[in-house]
């Protein structure tokens, strides 16, 4: 179990996340929803230790998660990746295997096999020699999903994996999430466009700086909660 306890994140004195607590158990797809600027990415990054906590603590199996980050796979929000970096699809995915081998050693046969399986799983093996900068948005998302799979982590944190992907890719990503769920992994996914996909999630965290609601779809996606989080833009979501 992952426990997030009273977490706060500040940027130069400005509060982005305030006093958020929740637990994640294995075998569930948990969605984080909330408006732009609500602190979804900041919360995910603070769980990963990419930005410091102003307050609170995060534990996994009762130990500080910061000491077990090799258990965590992460897909950053698209805007935060340097797509001009000159590296091929296969090498991006192989980066996930670094902790599984001694420094400066070539990848093991097992790692190569895992990378191949991950790329096949997302339908990107044929494009393995392409530089990542020459892929479409949906293809790039697939590559980063493969990278997360190749890491063989226990916890998966995905920041808007569905942004800029077509329906087919969206379906494929949900299938992968379902597989991970069945394997008993812990899954936290920043969602978007809930109208059509909200049934794919087992639980939701609705945030806007603070945690507004935490529970099942029917508990969280209510007009009152959405009003609290989104103000007047609730029309976007209420018909789902
Ligand atoms: N590096 C930073 N420096 C200063 N402020 C930041 C930084 N990153 C985010 N913020 C601010 O923190 C708040 C939360 O941002 P965050 O990116 O976590 O929101 P989000 O919910 O992920 O939004 P989106 O849906 O647009 O991705 C925003 O007000 C944002 O302007
Ligand atoms: Mg974000």
UniProtKB/TrEMBL annotation:
Q: Which UniProt keywords apply?
A: ATP-binding, Nucleotide-binding, Transport
**Gene Ontology molecular function terms on file:** ATP binding; ATP hydrolysis activity
Q: Which InterPro entries match?
A: AAA+_ATPase, ABC_transporter-like_ATP-bd, ABC_transporter-like_CS, Metal_Ion_Import_ABC, P-loop_NTPase
* One matching Pfam family: ABC_tran
Q: Which PROSITE patterns match?
A: ABC_TRANSPORTER_1, ABC_TRANSPORTER_2
ABC transporter domain: from which residue to which, for each copy?
A: 2-234
- Similarity-based family: Belongs to the ABC transporter superfamily.
- Could you identify this protein by its name? ABC transporter related protein
Taxonomic source organism: Cyanobacterium stanieri (strain ATCC 29140 / PCC 7202)
Q: What is the lineage of its organism?
A: Bacteria, Bacillati, Cyanobacteriota, Cyanophyceae, Oscillatoriophycideae
């Amino acid at each position: 179990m992952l426990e997030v306890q009273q977490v706060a994140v500040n940027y130069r004195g400005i509060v982005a996340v305030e006093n958020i607590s929740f637990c994640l158990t294995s075998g569930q797809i948990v969605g984080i929803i909330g408006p732009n600027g609500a602190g979804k990415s900041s919360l995910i990054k603070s769980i990963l230790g990419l930005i410091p906590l102003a307050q609170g603590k995060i534990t996994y199996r009762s130990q500080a998660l910061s000491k077990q980050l090799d258990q965590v796979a992460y897909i950053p929000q698209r805007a935060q990746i340097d797509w001009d970096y000159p590296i091929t699809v296969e090498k991006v995915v192989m980066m996930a295997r670094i902790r599984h081998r001694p420094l400066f050693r070539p990848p093991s046969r097992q790692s190569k096999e895992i990378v191949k399986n991950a790329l096949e799983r997302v339908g990107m093996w044929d494009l393995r020699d392409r530089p990542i900068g020459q892929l479409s948005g949906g293809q790039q998302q697939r590559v980063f999903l493969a990278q997360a799979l190749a890491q063989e982590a226990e916890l998966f944190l995905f920041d808007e994996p569905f942004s800029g992907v077509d329906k087919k890719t969206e379906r494929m990503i949900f299938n992968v999430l379902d597989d991970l769920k069945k394997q008993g992994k812990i899954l936290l996914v920043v969602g978007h466009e809930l109208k059509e996909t909200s049934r794919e999630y087992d639980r939701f965290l609705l945030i806007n700086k603070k945690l507004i609601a935490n529970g099942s779809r029917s508990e969280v996606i209510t007009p009152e909660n959405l009003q609290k989080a989104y103000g007047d833009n609730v029309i976007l979501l209420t018909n789902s």
